[in-house]
Amino acid sequence: MLLLETGVRVSSRSARSTTGAVSATLISVSSPEITSFLARLSARDEAAAWLAGELLDAGWSLRSLDGPMQMDVWQLLLDRGTRTVRFGMERGYSDGVHVADHAGAYRPIAEAMSGSATLAEDPAAVLRWLNRRSDLAAP
Asked: In sequence order, what DSSP letters do the residues of 7-58 get, joined into one string?
């Protein structure tokens, strides 16, 4: 859900007012909300913003975009296949990129990749790894 300053929450599935009323409004991956989040993230973590944009371009689905919440907290969740990737910010700092494991816990991308590459060193390798893993069936 994206909590806008107007008090409206938006998700990839529907829009709900703070009273819970559902409308048919959908948030698209090219929406101003996504563009704004990626610009905000880019100012703090350029590689993470690049990766989020590339995943969206590669067909990853927007699960949710939350923010801004207390202490300038934001979270973008993207899904494809069995994978969910989290991009977040808190108090003006990037949380980095995290990947959900099969139990649903989020781990930093470098840990999930067993240190084979880092986003800062080789963002294209991280993108390839995520796209390959998202195409694999869950064990």
From this structure: S-EE-SS-EE-TT--EES----TTSHHHHHHHHHHHHH-HHHHHHHHHHHHT
Contact by Cβ (8 Å): 77, 68: no
pTM beyond cutoff 0.85 = no
Angstrom distance (rounded) from CA 119 to CA 22:
38
Residue where the block lists tokens 């880019």: 42
Using CA atoms, how far apart are residues 72 and 55, in angstroms rounded to an integer? 24
> For 63-87, what is each residue's pLDDT tens digit?
999 988 888 899 999 999 888 999 9
